[in-house]
């Protein structure tokens, strides 16, 4: 990595990331770190050395700016700071902090560029740096792209180290002891004679000196907390029902509210009749909101009841109302006009395809809901020239901006109190709960409004995962896969999402064929083309985004071609694989699953390998068939993340991602009829239940080079590995999800 | 006016008789450990013990609760004095987002009160109504097994009547 620059007082440079490579613009601006939000209004006896550490005489606060959506982000961010700062769990509190450009996401940038993650060539590095600079200049604080650990890794440990060294400096000043005789341990500077001065007592002196910004990070061999099975900071609360989620907040005098708005997403409210609703018990008020109505009531139940009693006449959807039309739009998008980008054009695909008897296939993936178990909610109060918003959001600064736009307040007067939430899977990148809570609150200044979506509204107003289709042609023989052409057509989830967030999306969408164009296979004649279907229903990022569809397409096709050529699916992949990290995960699942030992009749194994967000993940799924029903018995999964920072959480995220991928492939889809999503609750969109859950064996591979995320990458291989296993067990090839349309699961 | 016993104490509430216990607990009594996930008995996030039996509180109109004994996650144990099932959940680090876990813990507590030596299939069957969108199922299984062991080891159990509360 590059140099560590000295920086001015109260600022902090993010290591080398923004400095490496030569971008032509804004170098000066990029080097200037945004102001430290913690430095505002600091008391004289309090110290903040950088945007992540705040020390006051009464305690230490660590800021974890990445939103915790259940992935343990808050805990792991705090542990990274605490590791270098020599703090023990329990010696600090953790807060999400206020939205700030200081918390821009470095690592998201790395995945936003059209280069293989293994490509460290100059062009790839420059592009990553350029995109990083743009994200930094726009101050985008994002939780997404499985980037929390990668983004935090350097800067949070460095933040902890800066705090530690500055506190030592302060102790040297206070005691007159020589700096090199001081050490730190468990929240205190330790003097040569063993006396301990707690950090909190050093805050006043530390606040007056320049932070010590030239620091050395500890080697992994010296870690106390990282890389060890440490208890997550929220485990006790979440096991005893004492963790407060956004939906649980109930400040004094709060008014409960719910909304009903056009289930045809983006359609208008033509008229409504709320007479019955208004006469129902506990109902206080019914207010108009964009394309809908809000009910204010004494409690959430009353609000729900009244909302469903309102008779609404909804306008038409701004997209085709019937599912068949959506599929027709996808099918007709494989045209020159819709071509988004040719991602790979190697060798002579046409000639090779013409030279042998090949296969032609079509694969399909449906819309899917995010449906985190905690329905959307938000609290908002607008009063005395400020607005307060309590909600979990992955885009805090955009949420803040939206509140500012609706209230007319400057963003500096909008306070976002980011909350723990019951999952997101991408749903909390959207803004409906924030918009409606604010629209209600602005009509009732001084009141605290608590908006809760019913589960049905949450489903109706989800922005689902993209539907998509792939058309594949390929030729294989005993020498392997000789030619492969994959054309992928999906609407652009990123463009749809960006349009709602007012963020520009220039150029092609690398997510349309994600998992396909960056597949780590050396196939001599290979073509990957992405076609952008014009937006149909509005869609959004769903855990693992494009790779959740692309991974299914390519890993099903590779399987078919290898089997067609009489090759073993795993050995055949290994023979094609040109990325060392991907080879290692394949080798790992081969060994873990005892792949080369045959299974009894009625059983089958399938394998898949997908690289997403820079993390290669291989999975082997083992199924058995009894009385015509399929049971998923075992899954073996290996991921290369560079370094496993938090082993327990790593295993949980990996297993959870596998279950997410399998469960939705088994039995979920969102379909539209009359412009509305037909699935409105979990009986129609269930996912996996515990009685269907396989035994899952997880292995994290640690090359030691950098760190990459694990929140999303286990998802994409799950569906194709399952389809491939079902083929191995039954001879039935599933080319469309959900598989429950074609086979029965036990 | 409806009277019932909640976590060992008598409570009275004045709410419409069709109001589900879930919302009475959360919005009227401020006990928010019991969660709303679906409202139609599909997710189990709202599970409480109703006269000793695991029930979905979103399906229990308050009129049916009159005179009953209700135990919620808050009454099962506390961070300082967790119930063995909660302790097992902590030891096994089950939670991801944690939103489903109150319901999971209550379901497991009820299940283990009837079966201290459960098979894997029995655990799966007992827990199948509790959805976890984060996919914590493997650790739920481990935690239920661990809790069963803790409950089956009588010397380990903490008796609030005889124990001084130290340690
Ligand atoms: S909220 Fe009661 S079962 Fe889902
Ligand atoms: S832990 Fe998130 S739903 Fe179960």
UniProtKB/TrEMBL annotation, chain A:
SMART domains: Ald_Xan_dh_C. Residues 240-318 form the Aldehyde oxidase/xanthine dehydrogenase a/b hammerhead domain. One of its GO terms (molecular function) is oxidoreductase activity. It comes from the Bacteria. Gene3D superfamilies: Aldehyde oxidase/xanthine dehydrogenase, a/b hammerhead (3.90.1170.50), Aldehyde oxidase/xanthine dehydrogenase, molybdopterin binding domain (3.30.365.10). InterPro entries: Ald_Oxase/Xan_DH_a/b, AldOxase/xan_DH_MoCoBD1, AldOxase/xan_DH_MoCoBD2, AldOxase/xan_DH_Mopterin-bd_sf, N-heterocyclic_Hydroxylase, OxRdtase_Mopterin-bd_su_IorB, TAT_signal. PANTHER family: ALDEHYDE DEHYDROGENASE. This is Xanthine dehydrogenase family protein molybdopterin-binding subunit. It comes from Parahaliea aestuarii.
UniProtKB/TrEMBL annotation, chain B:
It comes from the Bacteria. The keyword Metal-binding applies. Coiled coil: none annotated. InterPro entries: 2Fe-2S-bd, 2Fe-2S-bd_dom_sf, 2Fe-2S_ferredoxin-like_sf, 2Fe-2S_ferredoxin-type, 2Fe2S_fd_BS, Beta-grasp_dom_sf, Diverse_Oxidoreductases. Pfam families: Fer2 (PF00111), Fer2_2 (PF01799). Residues 1-76 form the 2Fe-2S ferredoxin-type domain. GO terms for molecular function: 2 iron, 2 sulfur cluster binding; metal ion binding; oxidoreductase activity. Keywords: 2Fe-2S, Iron, Iron-sulfur, Metal-binding, Oxidoreductase. The keyword Iron-sulfur applies. This is (2Fe-2S)-binding protein. It comes from Parahaliea aestuarii.
